[in-house]
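Run log // design_07
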């Protein structure tokens, strides 16, 4: 029996799923007494340091947790739970940490994209029972903007490089804590958790441990999901967002099965987009909740869900806030939510009034679940113009002139799956959303979607230059060479594809094999 400290924020479902997959049962902590009784405690921390410490105090869990940590019994902390072990954090200077370990938590100060999102390696500073069965060169999934700075080097288990070297795991006796998410780190992560759960005692130090570590470029499989005309939920795929063939919705498979296949093939993340999510429906009928619950039982890489993340009122008059919708998705197993149409409306308002309300879906979800949990999905379409002065938007000079020889273009944001163009450009949208608290940009391109002609390099460079958060390049991948092109000609942190994977033209493994030795990737 594993006791799990769920303090009510973020995706604890994946940790429970991972532990259950490894054959253990999980008991959730309801009171301090549950912590006192625990024999093995797992603490997955997500979101904001201040919110976590505040909730622990509020629920009277702080003192029992400190007692447990001093008891010498096995403890596994994940992400913000690692940070909570220290004395203080720059993220919430007024909230003291648990103070079990001397030192503090600081924001990344490098000029790379923040949050640090993706698969990175571990330099191992001590032998540990956790490393049994690992070669040492595996990569693990990180997502964070802050890292710990211990006052003493004695407790450092691993470090990782991102701009500079930071501490990515600590070990003191039976207490271990990692900045990365083992429950989201595929087979390597499950092995590490299994070593903890099994109570392995023999400390090992794998041979293939790297001298320096490098963040991998991520390969993401995207599943556009909707009900077909018979009412079955299917993965579909459009050509420039048109998903019908002779009036019938294309059916490329079942969402849960396909996601499982892509996980086995080595996808670094899976994204589900409910492409008819802009229509009104009651939350309780949302089929994507079930898709996430089923998928997260077998898929141990990050899951993103998009489509319909906004405030809405159902046909019975019940109001749901975007935060409520997102919370349901997180509890069902999502790690991030992706906001499309609502982001355009929010940015239009901000541009009109010159100020943020603090109440938008982006701001609310980021405040509770952290910036890293909020992805903005942009659906832009290229609009040619004769000169940069022709429109009040961010115009670029293009190497691909328009039908009348136009040398300039801007990228118009659309809503409702490309059905409606709005007076905002993709570069401005990305920039404003970052200011509001978004943690990542999923950059589609309607002109390129389903064409197999390669990513829109000009668009990606323009948006990437306007933000400091990671950008996922999407739309147009037709072969493995297109991934190399997007990673060498732009600074995109990840590349997403759909059609070539669904039609089995180019499997994920083939993309990774082609990239090996050319670009840093997580090996399959
Ligand atoms: O507006 O917040 O409800 O979210 C709706 C979401 O659904 C948005 O993220 C939007 O991108 C997506 N969406 C809406 N309609 C479509 C459609 O295709 N008709 N999906 C759609 C299109 C593009 C990617 C696609 C890539 C790669 N999104 O999903 O996977 O273009 O394709 P490729 O590799 O085959 O070229 P909201």
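design_07 sequence
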């Amino acid at each position: 029996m594993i006791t799990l400290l769920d303090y009510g924020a973020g995706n604890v479902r994946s940790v429970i799923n991972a532990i259950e997959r490894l054959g253990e049962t999980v008991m959730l902590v309801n009171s301090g007494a549950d912590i006192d009784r625990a024999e093995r405690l797992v603490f997955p921390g997500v979101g904001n340091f201040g919110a976590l410490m505040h909730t622990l105090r509020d629920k009277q869990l702080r003192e029992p947790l400190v007692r447990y940590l001093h008891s010498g019994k096995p403890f596994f902390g994940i992400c913000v739970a690692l940070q909570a072990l220290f004395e203080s954090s720059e993220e919430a200077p007024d909230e003291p940490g648990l103070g079990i370990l001397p030192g503090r938590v600081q924001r990344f100060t490098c000029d790379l994209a923040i949050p640090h999102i993706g698969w990175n390696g571990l330099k191992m500073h001590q032998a540990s029972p956790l490393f049994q069965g690992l070669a040492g060169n595996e990569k693990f999934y990180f997502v964070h903007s802050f890292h710990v700075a211990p006052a003493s080097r004695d407790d450092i288990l691993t470090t990782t490089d991102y701009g500079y070297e930071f501490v990515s795991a600590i070990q003191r006796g039976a207490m271990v804590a990692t900045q990365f998410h083992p429950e989201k780190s595929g087979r390597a992560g499950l092995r590490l958790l299994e070593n903890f759960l099994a109570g392995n005692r023999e400390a090992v130090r794998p041979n293939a441990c790297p001298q320096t570590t490098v963040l991998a470029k991520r390969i993401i499989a995207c599943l556009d999901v909707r009900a077909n005309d018979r009412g079955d939920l299917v993965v579909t795929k459009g050509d420039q967002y048109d998903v019908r063939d002779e009036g019938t919705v294309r059916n490329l498979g079942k969402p849960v099965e396909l996601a499982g296949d892509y996980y086995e093939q080595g996808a670094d993340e899976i994204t589900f987009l409910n492409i008819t999510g802009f229509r009104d429906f009651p939350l309780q009928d949302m089929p994507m909740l079930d898709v996430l619950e089923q998928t997260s039982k077998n898929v141990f890489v990050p899951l993103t869900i998009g489509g319909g993340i906004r405030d809405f009122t159902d046909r019975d008059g019940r109001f749901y806030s975007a935060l409520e919708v997102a919370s349901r998705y997180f509890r069902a197993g999502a790690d991030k939510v992706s906001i499309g149409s609502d982001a355009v409306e929010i940015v239009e308002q901000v541009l009109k009034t010159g100020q943020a309300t603090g109440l938008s879906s982006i701001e609310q979800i980021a405040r509770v679940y952290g910036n890293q949990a909020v992805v903005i999905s942009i659906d832009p379409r290229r609009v040619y113009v004769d000169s940069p002065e022709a429109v009040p938007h961010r115009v670029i000079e293009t190497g691909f002139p328009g039908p009348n020889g136009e040398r300039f273009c801007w990228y118009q944001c659309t809503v409702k799956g490309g059905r409606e163009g709005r007076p905002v450009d993709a570069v401005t949208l990305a920039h404003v959303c970052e200011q509001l608290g978004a943690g990542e940009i999923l950059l589609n391109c309607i002109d390129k979607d389903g064409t197999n002609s390669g990513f829109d390099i000009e668009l990606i460079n323009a948006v990437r230059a306007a933000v400091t958060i990671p950008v996922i390049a999407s739309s147009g991948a037709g072969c493995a060479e297109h991934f190399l092109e997007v990673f060498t000609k732009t600074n995109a942190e990840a590349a997403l594809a759909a059609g070539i994977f669904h039609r089995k033209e180019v499997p994920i493994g083939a993309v990774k094999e082609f990239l090996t030795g050319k670009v840093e990737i997580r090996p399959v």
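Residues 240 and 449 are 5 Å apart (CA to CA).
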